[in-house]
């Protein structure tokens, strides 16, 4: 990539990392995709490719996340090695290995099955790491904005609370959970096989890996609801619904949807236009029924 693909800020970040660590990185470009601001492509002095991403949390949490990911990577999990964790002013950055991948394509039902398959490789990955925070710690329980938004908002909130109260006692899962498992955060090879999961910039958690797939399905709703929705993308979302229904008990799945919808509705009622809030409500009502 040429310099036009990078911002001055990208170059400044890499320069600051070099000053603090002596890494000698050279900024080479920027990822085209990435829900949390994309990634800076870089290169080590010996020519190895690297990726620089911002971690959305404190330095101590970033170091914990990097240690967990390196632990599971050494045991075969498809995640990048995190080579540096660097504080730059008020921000924290990862310098990690750049995993090979093919150019991104639209998400088909077959690619959705590949996402499920690569996520399955996180099963029991944290059986020997009981100190890793549980998945429930990843999502803040914010109810005030939703309850005060409208009568419909209060009804949905009441339903979420009801589902929480009915949540069944389940097994103590010890899977590695990616809290933002979107299609953009999964790498594929030229055959369509998923080869890695990246962008752990919200942390790494312990729990049921299927909890992450509910977020994957929520993310696909943006594509399903688009005015020019792609039938292939819509079919991919439907395939994931089938997989979740096959694998997760109905009461547990409703509980997972309740947690995710509270998280997303809190943001939507505070920041999104009314038409987006409405489809969030539609989705919550259908999944919690």
TrEMBL record:
Key words, A-Z: Transferase
Domain of life (superkingdom): Bacteria
Presence of the UniProt keyword tRNA processing in the record: no
Gene Ontology MF: a single term: transferase activity
Matching Gene3D superfamilies: 3.90.1200.10
Residues spanning the signal sequence: none
Pfam families: APH
Domain Aminoglycoside phosphotransferase intervals: 43-237
UniProt-recorded name of the protein: Phosphotransferase enzyme family protein
């Amino acid at each position: 990539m040429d310099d036009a693909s990078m911002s001055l800020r990208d170059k400044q970040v890499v320069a600051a990392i070099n000053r603090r660590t002596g890494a000698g990185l050279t900024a080479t470009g920027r990822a085209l995709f990435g829900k949390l601001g994309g990634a800076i492509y870089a290169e080590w002095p010996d020519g190895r490719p690297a990726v620089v991403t911002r971690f959305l949390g404190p330095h101590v949490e970033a170091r914990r996340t990097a240690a967990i990911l390196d632990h599971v990577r050494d045991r075969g999990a498809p995640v990048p090695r995190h080579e540096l964790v660097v504080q730059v002013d008020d921000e924290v950055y990862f310098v990690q290995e750049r995993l090979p991948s093919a150019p991104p394509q639209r998400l088909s039902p077959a690619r959705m099955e590949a996402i499920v398959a690569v996520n399955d490789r996180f099963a029991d990955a944290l059986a020997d790491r009981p100190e890793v925070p549980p998945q429930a710690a990843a999502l803040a329980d914010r109810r005030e904005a939703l309850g005060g938004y409208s009568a419909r908002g209060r009804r949905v909130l009441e339903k979420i609370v009801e589902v929480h109260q009915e949540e069944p006692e389940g097994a103590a899962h010890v899977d590695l959970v990616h809290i933002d498992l979107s299609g953009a955060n999964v790498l594929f090879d030229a055959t369509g096989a998923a080869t890695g999961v990246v962008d752990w910039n919200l942390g790494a958690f312990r729990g049921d890996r299927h909890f992450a797939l509910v977020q994957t399905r929520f993310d696909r709703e943006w594509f399903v609801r688009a005015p020019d929705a792609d039938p292939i993308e819509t079919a991919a979302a439907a395939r994931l619904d089938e997989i979740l229904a096959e694998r997760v008990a109905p009461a547990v799945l409703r509980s997972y949807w309740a947690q995710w919808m509270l998280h997303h509705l809190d943001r939507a009622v505070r920041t999104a236009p009314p038409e987006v809030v409405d489809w969030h409500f539609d989705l919550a009502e259908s999944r919690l029924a």
